[in-house]
Amino acid sequence: MAMIIGLTGGIASGKSTVSTILKTKGYTIIDADIAAREVVNIGEDAYNGIIEAFGKKILLEDGNIDRKQLGSIVFHNTEKRLLLNSIVHPAVRNYMQKKKTEAIEAGKQTIIMDIPLLFESKLTYMVDKTILVFVDPDIQKERLMKRNQLSEEDAVARIGSQMRLNEKIQLSDAVIDNNKTIEETEKQLYNIINEWELEP
Ligand SMILES: CC(C)(COP(=O)(O)OP(=O)(O)OC[C@H]1O[C@@H](n2cnc3c(N)ncnc32)[C@H](O)[C@@H]1O)[C@@H](O)C(=O)NCCC(=O)NCCS
Ligand SMILES: Nc1ncnc2c1ncn2[C@@H]1O[C@H](COP(=O)(O)OP(=O)(O)OP(=O)(O)O)[C@@H](O)[C@H]1O
């Protein structure tokens, strides 16, 4: 029976950093952010839904969604963010479920589902256990600003749109403190893998 692990954490907390380590160890990763990009490709259902809801003004010259523009709208307007979620999340759930079934049929013993909004979107029914990657708020903001070239205001708006860290810590089966070096993070990850006897 495959063990399904939910990997989550606030924006820029280090989920992709941890999932990359897992991938190099041969684990199967199903990434919700990739799913959310796939389902809004030109011609996909969510693509048409976004244009209906936000108008063609959020398209680039080549017809693709202008992510920067859409992000600047939804992270400063809760109603618009929830509207976007209502369009994209059902398609993301279907995509993730399909990939999970494929991985189980392929005989994978452990499947990692990297889902930023695992708790916010109440998706814990999809997984057996959860790992939370966390950082202190000031480090999170600094890393997000640096990685995405965001202003402090935009970084704070994105961080503020997600569940509070202490709530997520309560809900998680294991936590990884990603405030220090990546080597330190790796050690905590290996402890969890050994304790839970996770095989790829
Ligand atoms: C708003 C969009 C266009 C911004 O795109 P952009 O390329 O700037 O960000 P990207 O998609 O890489 O997301 C980066 C991070 O932002 C956070 N985030 C993204 N969407 C949301 C959201 N609706 N609510 C809260 N946080 C979010 C997550 O931590 C995510 O890992 C895009 O994030 C999007 O379509 N969001 C809606 C779908 C969604 O909720 N994705 C999150 C994972 S399911
Ligand atoms: N321990 C660390 N020390 C220094 N920088 C780090 C560390 N962990 C992650 N980073 C950097 O912080 C940024 C955010 O990390 P990462 O992209 O893994 O977060 P994430 O949780 O996947 O973000 P998102 O919510 O956007 O998916 C990246 O630029 C990454 O290189």
Describe the protein:
The structure is a single chain. The protein has 200 residues and is an alpha/beta fold. It has one domain: 3-Layer(aba) Sandwich (Rossmann fold), CATH 3.40.50. It is 52% helix and 12% strand. The protein has a five-stranded parallel sheet with strand order 2-3-1-4-5, with helices on both faces. Helix 3 (45-54) runs antiparallel to helix 5 (78-105) and helix 6 (137-148) crosses helix 7 (152-160). Bound molecules: dephospho coenzyme A and adenosine-5'-triphosphate. Residues 11, 32-33, 36, 67, 70-71, 74, 81, 84-85, 88, 92, 116-117, 158, 161-162 line the site of dephospho coenzyme A (COD).
Give the topology.
Layout lengths: L2 E6 L6 H10 L3 E4 H7 L6 H10 L12 H8 L3 H28 L4 E5 L14 E6 L2 H12 L3 H9 L4 H7 L2 E4 L4 H14 L5
Parallel strand pairs: 1-3, 1-4, 2-3, 4-5
Helix pairs in contact: 3-5, 6-7
Bound molecules: dephospho coenzyme A and adenosine-5'-triphosphate.
The site of dephospho coenzyme A has 18 residues, from helix 2, helix 4 and helix 5.
Features:
ATP-binding, 52% helix, 9 helices, dephospho-CoA kinase activity, Rossmann fold, EC 2.7.1.24, binds adenosine-5'-triphosphate, binds dephospho coenzyme A, Depp_CoAkinase, 200 residues, alpha/beta, nucleotide-binding
The biggest sheet, with number of strands, parallel, antiparallel or mixed sense and barrel status, is: 5 strands, parallel
Distance between the termini: 12 Å
- DSSP strand content: 5-15%
Q: List cofactors, ions and other ligands.
A: dephospho coenzyme A, adenosine-5'-triphosphate
CATH second-level architecture: 3-Layer(aba) Sandwich
CATH superfamily: P-loop containing nucleotide triphosphate hydrolases
Please count the beta strands (DSSP E, at least 2 residues each): 5
Subcellular location: Cytoplasm
Main location: cytoplasm
EC number: 2.7.1.24
Family: Belongs to the CoaE family.
